[in-house]
From TrEMBL:
InterPro entries: Ppnp, RmlC-like_jellyroll, RmlC_Cupin_sf. Catalyzes the phosphorolysis of diverse nucleosides, yielding D-ribose 1-phosphate and the respective free bases. Can use uridine, adenosine, guanosine, cytidine, thymidine, inosine and xanthosine as substrates. Also catalyzes the reverse reactions. Transmembrane segments: none annotated. This is Pyrimidine/purine nucleoside phosphorylase. SUPFAM superfamilies: RmlC-like cupins. Keywords: Glycosyltransferase, Transferase. PANTHER family: PYRIMIDINE/PURINE NUCLEOSIDE PHOSPHORYLASE, PYRIMIDINE_PURINE NUCLEOSIDE PHOSPHORYLASE.
Length: 104
């Protein structure tokens, strides 16, 4: 999907890690939401309440899910899932564009 139609965009940015990770929240007519953002190179750890699908639209990173010792490389055009009530670590290797879908 290259574009979203009939959505509400929250103007206030979500800013993390001193501005190295930013996103905007998109809300759909059925109340589901996504965030669209950019991550600068660096190491980050996030926690989740809901299950998430992280689609990497451009860039490259490695991800380590909670409980795993393995780091998996993800690049533009690929995605990964994060379980609800979990944490994950990222090593962003180059500027990365992403879309995060929250799954209930």
């Amino acid at each position: 999907m290259k574009e979203f139609k009939n959505v509400t965009v929250i103007k206030k940015a979500n800013i993390y890690f001193a501005g190295k990770v930013t996103s905007r929240t998109i809300i759909f007519p059925d109340s589901t939401k996504k965030t669209l953002g950019i991550m600068m190179p660096g190491k980050y750890e996030f926690s989740t309440d809901e299950k998430e699908k992280m689609e990497i639209t451009a860039g490259k990173l490695t991800v380590q899910l909670l409980g795993s010792k393995e780091w998996k490389e993800i690049k533009g055009g690929e995605y990964f899932y994060v379980p609800a009530k979990s944490k994950f670590k990222l090593k962003v290797l180059e500027v990365t564009d992403y879309c995060c879908s929250y799954i209930k």
